[in-house]
Write a structure and sequence with these properties.
2 helices, 328 residues, single chain, 24 strands, twelve-stranded antiparallel β-sheet, AttH-like fold
Length: 328
């Protein structure tokens, strides 16, 4: 199945009181230095409550080992979300196919951006096409614009970051509730393999008092070929390990086997509080400077190995994050 970029970015929220969240985010890395940014435009509609717009931003400075994060909440009356293309307005902040502008925070935690979006590949689906029209899983995610390039500037406190040909992705996710527990990673360009792309997730769902085993999905694009590991049977048979701030998964599709290992040191992670539409909240440990190692095997023999020393996007989501204080 193919999907146009406009269709991939169209807003899924139609109002109502059933509970919904929906985000469009852009993340990108410096071409060589351990610097990264993440900017997210969000609808948060609590069940039986009044919706709001949220604006999030994070600057990751791996040279100084400083993470600067901020968030704004805006009345839904000052927001607009395109129903047939990417056109998101949250107060004075805006995101479309050509540009994104906005600001959050004050003083040393002030973040302001004025960035142009250029280039990009065709959309990538993380899930099976049928999953986007079904009720399971409740949380959906896709990548309307992998390999987008950013130019412009980001202000971090009183320091200007010149953004010149940073590469990343523009993403879209939505659902009626956040996934109960998950680890997610994305790499847009590996060390020595700048056109390779990976997105993967392992999630546990709580159904009543019971927990599912980890269910995983992954898509690897390399050398003009796409390897998809995302059917329900493949997902259920994945093997997942969580150790401290690290995560690894192994998943098979026919003769192909994908092994992924991701981790980040605590100084390159920041804890965010994600409100949940049904009530309560999840804590997300977020990094855009994580390490990733990927091995693809066919019939047990290694086909290729990919490494990213500091360009992996990485999130760990749970009810708590011991040792971390939420900053946004």
């Amino acid at each position: 199945m193919t999907i146009s970029r406009d269709a991939a970015n169209a807003a899924r929220w139609g109002g109502g009181s059933g509970g919904h969240y929906e985000s469009w985010f852009v993340r990108a890395n410096h071409p060589s230095r351990p610097l990264a940014l993440w900017i997210r435009y969000t609808i948060f509609a609590p069940r039986n409550g009044r919706a709001e717009g949220e604006l999030w931003a994070i600057a990751f400075d791996g040279e100084q080992e400083v993470v600067t994060a901020g968030k704004r909440e805006v009345s839904i009356d000052a927001c607009r979300f395109g129903l047939d293309s990417l056109n998101v307005v949250i107060a004075d902040a805006h995101l479309d196919d050509l540009k994104m502008v906005g600001s959050v925070g004050e003083g040393e935690k002030h973040l302001a951006w004025d960035l142009r979006l250029e280039g990009g590949d065709e959309p990538i689906l993380l899930l099976q096409p049928s999953a986007y029209a079904s009720g399971f899983p409740r949380a959906k995610a896709l990548v309307p614009r992998p390999f987008v390039r950013l130019r412009g500037e980001l202000l971090v406190g009183d320091t200007r970051w010149a953004i010149d040909d940073w590469v990343g992705s523009q993403n879209h996710n939505w659902g009626s509730r956040h996934t109960d527990r998950y680890a997610w990673a994305q790499v847009v360009g590996f060390d020595g393999a700048p056109t390779a792309f990976l997105e993967c997730i392992s999630a546990k769902l709580k159904i009543g008092p019971l927990w599912t085993p980890y269910l995983s999905a992954a898509v690897l694009c390399v050398d003009g070929r796409t390897y998809a590991f995302n059917t329900m049977l493949q997902s259920a048979r994945s093997r997942v390990r969580r150790t401290g701030l690290g995560w690894s998964m192994r998943i098979r599709a026919g003769d192909d086997e994908l092994e992924v290992a991701v981790d980040a040191p605590p100084e390159r992670l920041v804890a965010l509080r994600y409100r949940n539409p049904p009530g309560g909240a999840k804590v997300c440990l977020n990094s855009k400077l994580a390490r990733a190692n990927v091995v693809l095997r066919r019939t047990g023999r290694r086909q290729l190995q990919l490494t990213s020393t500091h360009r992996a996007a990485y999130e760990l989501v749970d009810d708590t994050a011991p040792g971390f204080t939420t900053v946004a």
